[in-house]
């Protein structure tokens, strides 16, 4: 999270070009949205018992277990040519790369578009703290089920969009780190998750590795956005800046557990 924010800062200062980044989490971690309430929604004893990392994102959205997945982030100026002004339409443009990436993996992915008043109302007031219990506007869906979840923030004239692409899904572990009003509510979510979310490897005859997914989605973004991605290596000074931001913010309880 510190690196995503640092990339945003550097891009806002004109120090680096737009960035598309792919990464994983070591150890596996639970990230929560900017507005979520830890005490109300997260079982921190379970997080610790499972040896998971924990961090609050700079973006909105709900809780994501980063384990059997590929995380991506896009850092690009709001003034980038043909970039829509609205968050929803910018999602659509930036997520075209995800769409192409899933297609490169042989999956018939498409954008979710909530088509009823009830579904649109759910977007404004989610029923749970779990990210993958329902798709939002223009998120990736395969066979009617969410296969990637994304969130966005805009700061200093720059868009940061990042999200999780499900390669596999451990629904029980996911459920275990959230608080529910009662066992009945937890059981409803246990039934609901397989109906609402799906992972890449449950859709393919041959399982995909994270490395294969990087190749597919890198090509997807290049195809969708008509760009050519080039490797970028951080300098020692940049790495030090990221580490300082991590210690000041994302590794700090004041940020992660704020009310």
Automatic annotation (TrEMBL):
InterPro entries: aa-tRNA-synth_II/BPL/LPL (IPR045864), BPL_LPL_catalytic (IPR004143), Octanoyltrans_LipM/LipL (IPR050664)
Organism per entry: Planococcus halocryophilus
Keywords: Transferase
Lineage: Bacteria, Bacillati, Bacillota, Bacilli, Bacillales
BPL/LPL catalytic domain boundaries: 14-229
One family name in Pfam for this protein: LplA-B_cat
GO molecular function: catalytic activity, acting on a protein; transferase activity
Domain of life where this protein originates: Bacteria
The keyword RNA-binding belongs to this UniProt entry's keyword annotation: no
Biological process terms in GO annotation: protein lipoylation
Name recorded for this polypeptide: Octanoyltransferase
